[in-house]
Automatic annotation (TrEMBL):
Domain Tyr recombinase: 208-414
Biased composition, class Pro residues, residue ranges: 54-64
InterPro entries: CB, DNA_brk_join_enz, Integrase-like_cat_sf, Integrase_catalytic, Integrase_recombinase_N, Tyrosine_recombinase_XerCD
Keywords from the named record: DNA recombination, DNA-binding
Compositional bias ranges of the Basic and acidic residues kind: 390-405
Stated name of the protein: Site-specific integrase
PROSITE patterns: CB, TYR_RECOMBINASE
Record region (Disordered): 1-66, 316-338, 390-411
Pfam families on file: Phage_integrase
Ranges where the Core-binding (CB) domain occurs: 96-182
Biased composition range(s): Low complexity: 21-32
Organism of origin: Actinomadura nitritigenes
Length: 431
């Protein structure tokens, strides 16, 4: 594994076999060796693209001279793009080289999550191009059709065709890339434009929603996590309880609180709040959510134990939620920001301890779905729930609303009662 330092925020992990693990199978098993390939989970930092500086004039170039396009050597997005297959190296001094434009395209996306998803999906297409000897700018619709038909995903170590939603997302990402290249006059066509894509009905039918918990299940999960923290009274146990409380009391997306800093805890109008980044609003898009007593209790207990590890009893600035020191290995002092995978593992472990039947299928999005469903199911106005969820359109909020409360309040029982007095078969059966 090659680890690339991306500054003081995070690192990029890159491995050789990740694309094959992500499941984009090509038509030929005996193709040429593919260059080192990027991991689908590689977080791409949103470093600003610096303009290309002109090389200093000199009569005779020497190896020690600064390269004409230095940003690919020092920028994490540029370094990740350099590992994508089928993209030839840019010519020195070419301001609009394929790799440079690909990095600019990724950087133009609205969030880190979108950058990661687009990077992964583009890597699948370029892997197909590399293994079939196809130059990406020479691709035609037939090539994209062949790639679409050969797509697979890896689930539990087994390959299977992707869902309609996955197929549509991959095609959309690659189409966005070609559109960006077209807008910079480096390619004449977008070969994905006329490719048949899954319909919205097919996408909706294939969507695998995160399981939603009922009210009793949610309360049991919260009690289990906090009860375990009380019994063990360790930093890790209270952190896990805080994670569960954040998931099931705030409706926040997991990236909102894993990306939060200690400094984001604040007070507004006398209420405790957590400031967080919002989806689709760029690096300056910020909002806050109110933190009530049940959540504050476990969060404060976690932060107190965390502060006790430091000589002055004050936690230095850093992420809100972090890994804890290894109990036996001093080379692992903890303090690293929790990832979405960490949160998923914590959630499933606590749900298993609580004996929830869907423990192994839960995801952080289950918390968001559960909060919205619970509030709407107990007659909280849609506008208030929409505001909490941060949705621009109320229809999006309704889309998170699961069916359990609809079943409980269904008018079918009323219809049965109304018709019962007029049914002759019912009266004959009662004789």
């Amino acid at each position: 594994m090659t680890v690339i330092n991306s500054g003081d925020r995070r690192t990029i992990g890159l491995t050789r076999d990740t694309l094959r693990a992500s499941g984009d199978a090509g038509p030929s098993a005996g193709a040429a060796t593919v260059p080192p390939q990027p991991t689908p989970e590689a977080p791409l930092d949103g470093t600003t693209l610096r303009p290309v500086g002109a090389a200093p004039p000199a009569p005779v170039p020497t190896p020690e001279m600064t390269p004409a396009v230095p940003q690919l050597a020092v920028d994490p997005i540029g370094q990740a793009v350099a590992l994508l297959p089928a993209l030839p190296p840019d010519d020195p001094g070419d301001r609009y080289g394929l790799r440079l434009l690909t990095a600019a395209w990724l950087r133009s996306q609205s969030s880190d999550a979108t950058r990661r998803a687009y990077y992964r999906d583009l890597a699948g297409w370029l892997d197909y191009c590399a293994r079939t000897g196809l130059a990406p700018r020479a691709a035609r619709r037939a090539d994209v059709d062949d790639w679409s038909a050969s797509m697979t995903v890896n689930v539990g170590g087994r390959s299977r065709p992707p869902s309609a939603a996955t197929r549509a997302r991959r095609l959309a990402a690659v189409s966005s890339w070609y559109t960006y290249l077209q807008s910079n006059d480096v390619t004449d066509r977008n070969p994905t434009l006329l490719v048949k894509r899954p319909t919205s009905a097919q996408i909706a039918a294939s969507a695998r929603k995160a399981p939603t918990l009922g009210v009793a299940e949610t309360a049991l999960l919260l009690d289990t996590a906090e009860g375990r923290a009380v019994d063990l009274n360790t930093e890790a146990a209270w952190r896990d309880a805080a994670v569960i409380a954040l998931l099931f009391y705030t409706a926040l997306r997991v990236s909102a609180f894993t990306g939060a800093e200690l400094a984001d805890l604040a007070t507004e109008a006398g209420y405790r709040v957590l400031w967080h980044d919002t989806k689709g609003k760029g690096p300056d898009g910020r909002d806050y959510v109110r933190l009530d007593g049940e959540l504050c209790r476990v969060l404060d207990a976690y932060l107190a134990l965390r502060a006790a590890r430091h000589p002055d009893g004050v936690t230095p600035p850093g992420p809100l939620l972090v890994t804890t020191p290894h109990p036996y290995d001093r080379s692992k002092p903890g303090g690293k920001r929790l990832t979405q995978r960490d949160v998923t593992n914590i959630l499933r472990r606590q749900a298993e301890l609580a004996g929830l039947p869907d423990a192994s299928r839960l995801s952080p999005h289950s918390g968001r779905r559960t909060v919205i469903t619970t509030l709407l199911g107990h007659d909280v106005p849609l506008a208030k729930v929409q505001d909490l969820a941060g949705h621009a359109d109320p229809r999006t909020t309704r889309g998170y609303d699961d069916t359990n409360h609809k079943l409980a309040s269904s008018p079918v029982t009323d219809l049965t009662r109304i018709l019962a007095g007029h049914r002759t078969t019912t009266r004959r059966r009662d004789r």
